[in-house]
């Protein structure tokens, strides 16, 4: 099990640093190697401490949901069976994102290429469900054989009273929906034998907001949950037992007052180091700014 020092928490927007000469790969944010007291960054990272993600202006591609009166959030893509499968939160009723606590459902869309366009195939999880992250468990990692698809999310998809925003001229004129339904301490997720389902509702034995799952090459699991801080859980298999591996610190004041952190994403690099990237937002900015 990697030590706590092996975890880094990358939060957007990424901050410039004034790093000193390195003495180990940890000084290079585990995104590069320390060679002769200088960081040699891997291909997608830069900066004195390899802590700045290389980005470029993306091409404007209507990958999914580009039509009028449409709102979506998040989304993860896996490759399987010669296609790319996208699972994304979509607001029903022509509503904007501010209705996510009532109108969010999880849609399955497919494309022949990674950058789309993705075409809607079906609804994987009906309202209310949000924050989807999909994991493919290949057959060689399962004792009984056969592929398994595990869809993590919040909300259990067992129904909610959705809103109709079709008569509103501006999404920002629609009042936000109330707080999401209370969680009962058991985080829901769905499993299926194929990307198309059928999906079976299951639960973890603990609460997990904004779940960020990761399947390791040995078949074990790691999962970040967001709630007053990011908590990293681990288990030898999906059925558990699940235990807390680490509590990840976040720079609470680095982006100023009113900033919140959510929706982590967890991955493992070629060196076996774990990384987490998240979304930072300021909830004091009006939605029409």
From TrEMBL:
<feature type="signal peptide">
    <location>
        <begin position="1"/>
        <end position="21"/>
    </location>
</feature>
<protein>
    <recommendedName>
        <fullName>EGF-like domain-containing protein</fullName>
    </recommendedName>
</protein>
<dbReference type="InterPro" id="IPR023296">
    <property type="entry name" value="Glyco_hydro_beta-prop_sf"/>
</dbReference>
<keyword id="KW-0732">Signal</keyword>
<feature type="region of interest" description="Disordered">
    <location>
        <begin position="170"/>
        <end position="196"/>
    </location>
</feature>
